[in-house]
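Thread: quick sanity check before group meeting

JM: Hey all, I'm pulling together slides for Thursday and realized we never actually wrote out the predicted structure for the chain we discussed last week. Dropping the sequence here so it's in one place. If anyone has concerns about the input, flag it before I start.
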Amino acid sequence: MFVYRCRDELDNIFTAIYKVYEDHANGGDVLLSLDGEAYLFAKEREVETDRTRSEKVARLLRARFGEEDYERICLALTSPDPGKAQAVYHVVERGIATDRRRGHLFDDLGNPEICKAFKLSQNAGRELGHLEGFLRFQELKSGILYARITPRNRLIEFLMEHFSDRFPQENFLIHDVPRGLVGVHPCRTERNARNVCT
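JM (edit): ok, ran it. Output follows.
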């Protein structure tokens, strides 16, 4: 068995998927692990994030399976479930092995790992839709808009993208309290339209 020890970050998990194929370890004997559990007789590898490799995986997933299935994969990876990396790896591995068409990556819901990834994605998607519809900002004395969230899933990147489109001319912060994350959006003007960061 090949165990790839990942951090709970999308780029790290995508890097691990790249390394599985780079190592020719793909197949049913691979585990992407987010916990520190020891496995007997396993070849273990710590995964260091590599943005170039992660971006290659993202481009491949978008091109091969389409934007909708790519978003489902990303939403599944926002879950706090420790088995999410393995479930997503299995979805990708099965999709490549069976040459799934665009928009059909999650068709085989009889497969437990694919079903798990699909459910994680659905749960995160519902929570995201709720937050996009009901999140309210309060204006601080400085004029900055501030929103405090306590989501079950790590959705701050999705929320920043959504509210950056809705409020491009506002300075705002979204604070994910349980994770200690803050998304920062500076007001976009003609001069700083490209300086949006999360």
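AS: nice. The helical segments are 10-22, 51-65, 67-76, 84-97, 112-134, 156-166. The CA atoms of residues 75 and 121 lie 5 Å apart.
JM: adding both to the slides.
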